[in-house]
Design a protein that fits this description.
Elements (H helix, E strand, L loop, with lengths): L2 E6 L8 H9 L10 E9 L2 E9 L8 H5 L5 E4 L3 E4 L9 H5 L6 E2 L5 E2 L5 H4 L6 H5 L5 E5 L6 H8 L2 E2 L11 E4 L1
Parallel strand pairs: 1-10
Antiparallel strand pairs: 1-8, 2-3, 4-5, 6-7, 9-10
This protein binds iron/sulfur cluster (3 copies).
One iron/sulfur cluster binds next to helix 1 and helix 5.
């Protein structure tokens, strides 16, 4: 099993509902977030296109954040989900420094936090909260090892890209282009 997410840059309207849903679902402290929305202008004038992207931890296959963690707090669970055990985290920030995506933050409670792919919801057969609430249905989630999963099916029929492939972390969030 290999969980992954594909996000359609052609359908995302930058509403940030995914950000609010994540903050609510995961009790994120005020002023912090596990996901965020970026705006990029592509093309050459006058042929310009605005690209909105909902971004979060890429749940990479090659994880500098896990390698640099001195306590084992950062780890990988079944399905390739990268997690942080809060009780083991000493807040040193080594993982934050090593992540090329700036996907982690220091929480006011003293530990480091990040996207979990909402693994607590997956256990109940539910989609991640951000996927569930997206009004344009631009996020596809599932098991890449299952050719019938939403993420596998959409990736088989569309072109896609990953962010910062040169970082070599093998990210598992794919942007449909
Ligand atoms: Fe680690 Fe950053 Fe990759 Fe997430 S995006 S798995 S925090 S290196
Ligand atoms: Fe590990 Fe926490 Fe240090 Fe990150 S801040 S490297 S999770 S102990
Ligand atoms: Fe937040 Fe869950 Fe979406 Fe990750 S998968 S950004 S934890 S709502």
């Amino acid at each position: 099993m290999r969980y992954a997410m594909a996000i359609d840059t052609k359908k995302c309207v930058g509403c940030s509902d995914c950000v609010v849903a994540c903050q609510t679902e995961n009790n994120i402290p005020l002023g912090y977030a596990r996901d965020w929305v970026t705006e990029t202008i592509n093309g050459v004038y006058p042929s310009l296109q605005l690209e909105f992207r909902s971004e979060r931890c890429n749940h990479c296959d090659n994880t500098p954040c896990v390698r640099t963690c001195p306590t084992g707090a950062s780890h990988v669970i079944e399905g390739g989900i990268v997690k942080v055990t809060h009780e083991k985290c000493i807040g040193c920030g080594a993982c934050i420094q090593s992540c090329p995506y700036d996907a982690r933050y220091s929480s006011p409670e003293g530990w480091v936090d990040k996207c979990t792919f909402c693994d607590h919801r997956l256990k109940d057969g539910q989609n991640p909260a951000c996927v569930e609430v997206c009004p344009t249905h631009c996020m596809y989630f599932g098991d890449l090892d299952d050719s019938n999963s939403p993420v596998s099916k959409v990736m088989a029929n569309r072109k896609w890209k990953v962010l910062a492939p040169e970082a070599g972390t093998s990210p598992q969030i794919f942007y449909l282009i």
